[in-house]
Amino acid sequence: MTLAETPDGDERTLFIDETALLETLGQAKRVLLVEPRYRRKYPPLGLAKIATFVKRHGGEVVFTRKPTPGDYDLVCVTSLFTHASLPVRDAIREASCVLPDAPILLGGVAATLVPNAVAGSALVYRGYSQALDECVPDYSIDWGVEEKWSKFSFTFTSRGCPNHCAYCAVPRLEPDLWVNPTWRSHIVDEKPHAMISDNNLSACPTEHVLELIEFLVQKKKRVILDNGLDCKLITDEMAAELARVRWVILGLRLAFDRMEEDGIFQEAVNRLRSGGVAKSNMMAYTLFNFTDTPQEADYRMHECVRLGIQPYPQRYEPLNITDRDKPFIGRHWTPNLLRAFRLFWMMAGYYKRGRFVDWAQQQDKYPLTADDWAAWSASK
Prior knowledge:
Blueprint: E1 2-5, E2 12-15, H1 18-27, E3 30-34, H2 45-56, E4 60-64, E5 74-79, H3 85-98, E6 104-108, H4 109-113, H5 115-118, E7 123-124, H6 130-133, E8 152-155, E9 158-159, H7 170-173, E10 178-179, H8 183-186, E11 193-196, H9 206-218, E12 222-225, H10 236-242, E13 246-255, H11 264-275, E14 282-288, H12 294-306, E15 310-315, H13 335-346, H14 348-351, H15 356-362, H16 370-378
Parallel strand pairs: 2-7, 3-4, 3-5, 5-6, 6-7, 8-11, 11-12, 12-13, 13-14, 14-15
Antiparallel strand pairs: 1-2, 9-10
Helix pairs in contact: 10-11
């Protein structure tokens, strides 16, 4: 373990390495798994893999979203987005109060990106553990997800991405490309659907991509490729193979995050369409509020619509933001313009009937002021 101070020097954060993490989990006899009370859709995969690891070593686990007293010798707390840091701090504080003698381990996204803002009295594990990643998530536990998500296997068949985009957390969470040797066992027979969460599957060796597609086809799974494909890496061969997959509607996700990708994105979509992927099965994450101007973002959104696929407006937030009540405003944007823009593009009924500029002049939910329109015009 190593010791680090917070910037103000008032608290000290302990970091635990993978060897110590696995030793601690392997020796624990009764573990409380805590997912803080933030909003989420999917099961907490980190905790689900810890559950498998602990049980494999003879321990027991209990899952909760609110720490409660009990006979536990270890508490494991997960974290998600950095803007949901407050519930994480609250969960650690509550665990410390009701289980003062049990050590607390903290992992996940916020623990990696802003450990000093969330750790409190917990030992922090940053990044991910390959040993834990090789464990099949424990689906015997009721993780409290909606019924539709209970039909999915969730897996990362690979980790990492060779790109180092300034707006992306992946290089800090998963610095190296790694293919999980146990990925096949994570796509379980009893689940009819599969969520593949690799951050850049298309950057993996071609052999792995083709093996994964063949496995999904043979298993007749309906699939969501959640984190998208790298458009510049989509070949004709890959497009034809991807067309064989039984996609959930909007299940094949792309990204059109920067104007530098203009032309590359459109070519990738056309290649996928020519290969046989239906437009209804594609969706594009479209970043805005970073270094882009409003009209550049609007252009990228409309290019998705022109190509017949649904854009998903993804508002940029800094990787270290810990309070969503203090949102980041890009230098070309205004608060009103951001809210109105996202509303227009989130509601398909709006963007399918016309252009943002026309709709914005008529809507009254987020009335645009002269300053807002000046920001819009300045971005031409």
